[in-house]
Each structure stands twice: as C-alpha cells, then as structure tokens.
Amino acid sequence: MPYGWMGKILRVDLANRTITKDDLPQAWMEQYIGCRGINDIILYEEVGPDVDPFSEDNKLIFGTGPLEGTPIGMGRISIQTKHPNRFIAEGGAGGFWGAQLKFAGYDFIVVEKKSDSPVYLLIDDDKVELKDAAHLWGKDTRQKYRMLREETGLRDVQVGSIGPAGENLVANAKVQFTLDHSGGKGCGTIMGDKKLAAIAVHGTGRVSVKDGEGFLAAYRQFRRNLDLKDTIDTFVPSWSFNSANMLLELFNENGWVHALNAQKGTFEPMLNDVEYLDKYVTRPHGCFCCPFPAEGRRFEVKEGKYAGITGDEREVGFAQAGTIVGIHSWPTVIKFRDLCTKAGLDEDQAMYSISWAMECYEKGILNRKDTDGIELRFGKEDAFIRMTEKIIAREGFGDILARGAAEAARLVGKGSEKYALTIKGKELERMPERNGYQMALALAVCEGGPDHTRWYPPYPPNPRAIPKGMKLPFDPVKAFQTRSVEDKGRLVKWLYDSRAVVESLPSCVYMIRGLMGIDMGIWQELYTTCTGVETTTDELITAGERIVNLERAYIVREGFRRKDDTVPRRMLEEPIPERHIPPIGKNLDIMLDDYYDQRGWDQKTAIPKEETLRRLGLDGVIDDFRSMGISDEIDA
Amino acid sequence: MIEKEKGAEIGGYIYVKYVGHIAVMTGRIRETLSLQGVRTVMDLLGVLDELYPGFKEVFMPPGGVFNSRTAMICRRAGAPSFGIIDENQEILDGDVLTLW
C-alpha cells in the first residue's frame, strides 16, 4: 500500500444494497493528489453531461487524501456531486470524520444509485453495511448523531448526516458532521434524493508515513509558520484569540458587509465580536489536530427566549446574517445558526434568499399575502426566524425560498431578479466584491458557484515581509491594491491552483497563512515525506492547475460559458456611497480577459484551449470537447 | 503626552478601533485620540505604546517588519479605505484607523 494512503475506494450501490471495495488507481494519486482532485476525476469520468442531477446516475463522493489522518489533515473530507444547477457541488468539512474514514481503511466512498427507503451506511473498520434508517428520517442532524452513537455502541463514531433540509430537497442543503461542521452545498440535497440519511464511520487503524523524521521536521516548520512569535500573517494572532469573528468589525468599518441585501456596506450598531466572546462562548473545541485554539468554539445562549441553545462554530459567517437581513441581536443569529445546523440548511442560501424577499417586500414586489401573512421586512427578527423554519419545512412561501434566491426570483418575476445575489444560481458568501477586485474575479470564475475556500486568503503577506529573492507568480504590491485590475489574473490563477493542492492533500484553508500561502515548499515537504513521492513545488502547482482545468472542463461540458462567470448586477452597477466605494463596472470584464489569458483559456468562451489541456495531460477532455463540438466554439 | 477624549488646540483628532487580540491589549474597542505631535503611523505607535506598554512592539517587532503580523486599515474622508503597509504613512485629521 502506498504511504499516506489506505488504497481503497468503497463503492456503495444504494439500489442493489451492494458494497464493493476497489483499489485506488495509482495514476489518480499521481495526477490529482487526493481528496478534491480525485473526487473531480471520478465525477468527470462517471457523471457525464447526460446525467440529470436528480437521476439515479448521479453520484455522491466522499474523499480524503494522503495527509488525512496525519496532523496536517485536520479531519477534513471533500464531498462532491453534480449540483442541481449542473455545476460541481463541492465542499470540504473538518472535524474528525475524514480521519476516521482513513483509520477505518478507506480513502474514498462513492455512493451510487438511489435507495427506495431511508438507509444509513455504517463503516466499522472492515465491517461495512447499509442499514435501515426509517427511524432516523425526519430527525435533525444532532439527533441523528446521538441516535447512531447509541445504537452502534461506538463511542468514537463520527457521523456525517443530512437534516430535514436535505431530506426535503432544499437547494444547497449540506452534509453535517460532528462539531457542527458542514460542507458540500447541494450535496445534502442529492444525499436526500438518494435517501441516504447518514454515514457513520469508526476506525482503529492508522496512517503510515514514509519518512517519519522528515515528516516531523516539516510539521514543526508548519507550526512555526503559525506561531504567534514567528508568523508573518496578520490573522494568526487574532485567530489564536477570538477566531474570525474579528472580521465583523473590520468588514463593517470598511463598508464590506452586505447589509440589507447588499444595498449598504455598513450596518449600525454592528454585532460585536467581543460581546459574543464575553456572553456566549463557553470553551474552545477545535478540529482534529487544529493548531488554533480559538478556531473552534462552543457557544451557549444562557438567557432570553433562546436560552439553552448550544453549538459549535468556527467562523463569523452566521453572524453576518444579522447585517444581511438587518438585525442586531446575537441570540437571534445564534438561533438562526442553530436552525441551519440541525436542518443541514446552508446559511448563505437561507440568509440571501430571505434578504432578497425582504427587499422585494419593501419595494412592493411582494406583499403580506405572498409571504403567508408575515411582515417580511428588514430588521424583523421573528419574521426572519419563522421564514427560515418555513424554508426547512418547505411550507408556504418557504417552499419558494427553498429553491434559492435565483429560482425564487424567476418564479416571482416583476423585476425581482435584479435583487437576487447569486452567481451561477447559487447565493453569495459574504465577500466584499466591490472593495476587493480579486475577490470579485475569484467568485465570478468559481466552477462551483461562489466558494471562497477555493482561493482564500485572497492576498499575500505584507509585501515588505516577504523574504527577499523569493520568486512569486504575481506582483505582491499590486496584489495589495484591492480596487485595481492590475495583475489580478495572475494572482487569482495562483490562488486557485495553490489552494487546489492544499485542499487535495488535504489541509484546512485556515492553515494557508503567511508564507504557506505563497510558497509551496512546506506543502511539498509534507507531501513527499508522507507519501515518499518525489516531486517539486512546480509539479504540485501543475497538479493544482490540472484540477482547476478539469473542474472547468466539467462545467464547460455542462454548458457553462463566459457569460456565467460574473457577479450579481448590484455589484457591477451600484456603489457603496457611505464608504465611497464605486461599483465594479467594466473592471470585471478586463480582469476576466486577463484571467483567461493567464489560464490558456479562450477569452470569448472561457473554454480551455487544446494546448492547455494537452500540457496538463488532460487528453481525454480534448477528445470529449471534440466529440461534443465544444472545440469548434473556440474557432468559431 | 496625548490627550484622550478632549479637544486639542492643533492637529485634530483620529478615531482608532481595536479589533480582535488588539482589543484584548487595550481593554477597549475604540477611542478618539488627539493628533498633537503625531504626523505618521510611527508617531502614533509611540503614543499608543505610552498608553498600552508593549503596543509598539506588536506592530513593529524588534528586527522585524512593520505590520508583518498585524494590520491597519485607514478610512479617510471622501475615499474608500486602504491598508497601511508603511510606518511612515501620514495620518490626517479625521482618519479612522482600524487596528488588528
């Protein structure tokens, strides 16, 4: 067995209730690194353009990589499927589940076909079985975890499950894991369609590394990069103390929030991170081997009408719901977070769909009759919570919003499409597009709809802190000019390619800090000492580029073109007056031209050119493009 | 010596926000400071170091690079905010500085 790997793919046929254990092809390990990269090639080869996302031929893939199960892997798992919007639904989650899958002896799970009744998959080392899940169906994700832990009798069992949102096929539903981790927007929806309630995994094995001493030395260097004393990263100190919640104040001060459905860039009074820390955080609770003590935290509401709510969080996302729908209450956003976690509902889907509806309500496009008697205005806390519950249950107007903001706008019409904050039909992720052009570009071109984890963090360290003589594939000073189009093509290409490597090893996006975001050397050391595969940083980056191109090829094959690489109209046309931030305007097109050039993609169509695909060894894609007539579009 | 929360005869004022671990150092999340004797970011760090001993070293590590593991964002009247990577950056009356 290759070092770092278990060498096995579990294939689970839900219709025939069969389970097979296949060998992991060596070529995939070499060309696609692992995790997200190998998920991509499985999806590309096995779920073609003729497959309807809700048909039994769609597949759901759970993948780990060679560094999973070591302290670098952070328990991560990448989940993929064909999204209902036909792009790649991909998402990573941390916790412990990924490590347990490796310890059980498997690298990947490919879930095939559909069950006619609810089932769950139990993996306990060699013992793998599908079991009836009628008693789990309808339960929330935390209930499912408790019930499975009890009925399996496995104290350390890790559970990935869907909640009522996935069961009810709500758009962008996620898979939830222990510590309230979640991932794979849309994967929960497809998991619900397949009637797979959960995957419980327990393993007692271990991961072998090739060069233990070398790996330990590389790991120590990794930790030094994240050390308060040695880091050259602005976020390491703050994340060591109070997590990414400090972004609340930072974003608000600079006009970067999407207040009131992004009509404004600031919101007063903003929810305060220190208040959150004082009143609601009870203790740290991190992922498998996470070096940041504050990155995972347990919270509890101790008084008021939401008293008793507890949970885990890692970042500020749920709190920004407050600005987006215009509320100032920590207990209310915590209640929102709790509803989403238990239901497996994507917070972004819910908050941006509701904020779209609130704007439509205030503009007179929707009225009380449309919204089931609810006064759906900005700032109405109870209306926000009630509508979230209705989305999960697909009840009344909630059934419209359960389809996502873009589809809801299409159904409502009357010009409401102008206010939907979506890209490729999927809701935004609270990024300051108008104030950070590299973020606007990165969101626009993302093959899976808006997903910041594929290119985060979006800037290098302070240029003056970068060691002299270090060769970078972009100009770090220009990269810091956030409202300039200069060099954004090269920067965003680097961000995508390098992060594709890290996500495929895998490790956590929060670890890409300081030098580790611009120098692949440490990642190469970790990979080589773990697997024994001799490689160079350039070869790793080429593998990352191959992964991104394969993902692009996937969505091109599905019909996505340059016109789909865009940001919402509001960001292109409307300024943020209170902070003097202009709209992006034509700057996006300038950056897209630059990005496609850097990538070796056709500017007009965003289709990878044959010479690019050939250089990356994607000859199969060339054949597909020729047979489907896609290549002709470039020449046309 | 800086005067806090009190009018200064010359130089004007700035508004400083402390975020994340910096707020832990200062024990407060925002304050107004006089610009008396303060022309650049470096001058301001000197003033803040008097108020909060050790403050300057966090932003300017001995032998290290200014803002290599900290950050400052400046919001100036009539313009979008910008990041400060030069300790000689001039500070103007009315600036809002966010430090983390």
Features:
heterodimer, A: 636 residues, alpha+beta, Aldehyde Ferredoxin Oxidoreductase,  A, domain 1, Aldehyde Ferredoxin Oxidoreductase Protein, subunit A, domain 2, Aldehyde Ferredoxin Oxidoreductase Protein, subunit A, domain 3, 3 domains, four-stranded mixed beta sheet, 27 helices, 40% helix, B: 100 residues, 3 helices, disordered N terminus
Describe this protein's structure:
- The complex is a heterodimer of chains A (636) and B (100).
- Chain A has three domains: 8-202, 4-Layer Sandwich (Aldehyde Ferredoxin Oxidoreductase,  A, domain 1); 237-427, Aldehyde Ferredoxin Oxidoreductase Protein, subunit A, domain 2 (Orthogonal Bundle); 437-635, Aldehyde Ferredoxin Oxidoreductase Protein, subunit A, domain 3.
- Chain A is 40% helix and 12% strand.
- Chain A has a six-stranded mixed sheet with strand order 2-1-6-3-4-5. A four-stranded mixed sheet of chain A has the order 8-7-12-9, sandwiched between helices. In chain A, strands 13-14-15 form a three-stranded antiparallel sheet.
- In chain A, helix 2 crosses helix 20 and helix 12 (317-325) runs parallel beside helix 14 (347-362).
- Chain B has a single domain (13-99), classed as Ubiquitin-like (UB roll) (Roll), CATH 3.10.20.30.
- A five-stranded mixed sheet of chain B has the order 2-1-5-3-4.
- Chain B is globular and about 35 Å long.
- The model of chain B is unreliable at 1-8 (pLDDT under 50).
- Chain A binds chain B through residues 228, 231-234, 236-238, 240-242, 246, 249-250, 253-255, 272-274, 435, 461-465, 480, 482-483, 579-581, and chain B through 17, 19-24, 29, 64-71, 73, 75, 78-81, 83, 85, 96, 98, 100.
